[in-house]
DNA sequence: TAGTGGTCTAGACCACTAT
DNA sequence: TAGTGGTCTAGACCACTAG
C-alpha cells in the first residue's frame, strides 16, 4: 500500500492503481459483508495492467478496512468496522443510550483566558475564550454541571447565533469536529455550590471529567464536568 | 503493504521482506525523528532483493508510522505521531507519569466463565477463562484492586509461564495487543472487602473502571478495577 | 485440479529534490 | 546531474482452498 497524494499524474490522467481502486470501491459499496470482490487476475484482465498494480489498488482498500483477503479463497467485502466510532459529547452520548439530553445555559460569555485555560487551549493568557456553563439533564433529571472553554477565534459568531443544542454537532458543522481527546477522570465529593446545582448534599460522591478535545492540530474545547455519581456512568471508546 | 500473518515460510525461513523490514526497524529504533533511513536502492544492494520487495518492507513501516517517505528526497524516521497513542494498562500508564507500578497477585487461576464474563468475552458460559486478581501499587503505595478475565484459549501457557509484570506487554508479545477498548467509569464508595485491600475506610470514595479490550476481532481482556479516589486520576486518550 | 492470494524478480520510465 | 521515491510491467513459484 502506498499513500497517494494526488491520485493523478501531472498531465491529469488518473493513475492506474487509482482507477482500479476506485472501480472496486464503487463496485463494493453497499455490497453485503462477505461478498466476493473480483479476483486479482480478473482485474488484471479487465484493466490490462500488471498484477502488482492491482495488488497496490487492493492493498489500499484492505488497509482502509473496505476489503479483506483470505489466502487461497479470494478477496471479500470486509465485515462492518467495529470501531469507526466518533468522539461524542453529553448529548450524543445520552442519545445513544436512548436518554433525552437537555441543557440549561447558566452562563455564556466572552472571557479572557486565565493561565490554566490558556495552556489547555494552547493560547496566550488574556486571549479571548468563550466560557459556557450548562446544567445538563437526562430524561428530565439533573445529571451534570459542565464548564466548557472554547477558542473564540475559531468560532466566529458563536455567542451571537444562539447556543446550540449539541456543541459537537455545531463544531462538526464548522469542520471542527474533535478527532481525538485527552480525558482525565476522578472520583470526588461535591462542593457546596456544585451540590446545590446537582440537587445533592455537599459531600456526596461525584465523578469529575476533564476533556481536552482536538480537531486536527487545533484544540477546540476544554471542559470540566461534574456528574452525580448516582445517576451517571461515563462510557468511552478508546482506540490505539 | 501486506498483512503478514506468519513472518515465516512453512520451512521456517524468514520472508525476505520481513528480514528487510526488521533490519530497518532495528536500525531506526531510537534514531532521532527526521533522521535518514537507508534508501530503497541501498537496501536492494544490501539484501540482494528486488526493489518491490524492499518497498513492501518499507510500506509496512510507513503504515505503522515508523517511517515517512518524501518523494525526491528519501525515507526518514517519522516525526512523533500526534496520535499513535496505544491503549495502555496500569503499568504503562503509571510509567508514563514517572511512577513505578508494582503488582501483587492475589489470585490467578483457571475458572469457568459465568454469564457476565462469558458475554463480555464473547464466549459461551462455562468456557475456560483466566481470572487474575491483583493489588496494584504506585511508588509503593496501594492504589487499586483489579480483576481481569482473559480467554484461556487465546493464551496458551499463560498461567504456567509465571505472571507477567505488564499484561499488555505480554499480550503484545503474543500479537494480541488491544487495538481498541470500551471503558465504563463510575464514582462510588468502597465496600468492606475492597476497603480492606485498599487500606481505606469502608464508604470512602473510589473510582470504578471497567474495560473490554479488543485486539482485531478478539476480545482479549475484560477487567474491573477499583481505585482509591485520593490517589488516582484516570487518564485516557480518546480517538474518533 | 483449477483458482486464489502471497511472495519475488529484474528491469523500466517518471517527477521531484538537491548540489 | 545524480539520487530519490512513485508507478508500472510481465512474468515466476509457492501454499492454500475448494470442487
TrEMBL record, chains A, B:
SMART domains found in the cross-reference section: HTH_GNTR, UTRA
Keyword set includes Transcription regulation: yes
Keywords, in A-Z order: DNA-binding, Transcription, Transcription regulation
Q: Which PROSITE patterns match?
A: HTH_GNTR
Instruction: Spell out the CDD domains in the cross-references.
Output: WHTH_GntR (cd07377)
Q: Where is the HTH gntR-type domain?
A: 14-80
**InterPro entries the record matches:** Bact_HTH_transcr_reg, Chorismate_lyase_/UTRA_dom_sf, Tscrpt_reg_HTH_GntR, UTRA, WH-like_DNA-bd_sf, WH_DNA-bd_sf
| Pfam families linked | GntR, UTRA
The protein's matches in PANTHER family, at most eight in alphabetical order, are given as: MANNOSYL-D-GLYCERATE TRANSPORT/METABOLISM SYSTEM REPRESSOR MNGR-RELATED, MANNOSYL-D-GLYCERATE TRANSPORT_METABOLISM SYSTEM REPRESSOR MNGR-RELATED
Q: By what name is this protein known?
A: HTH-type transcriptional repressor DasR
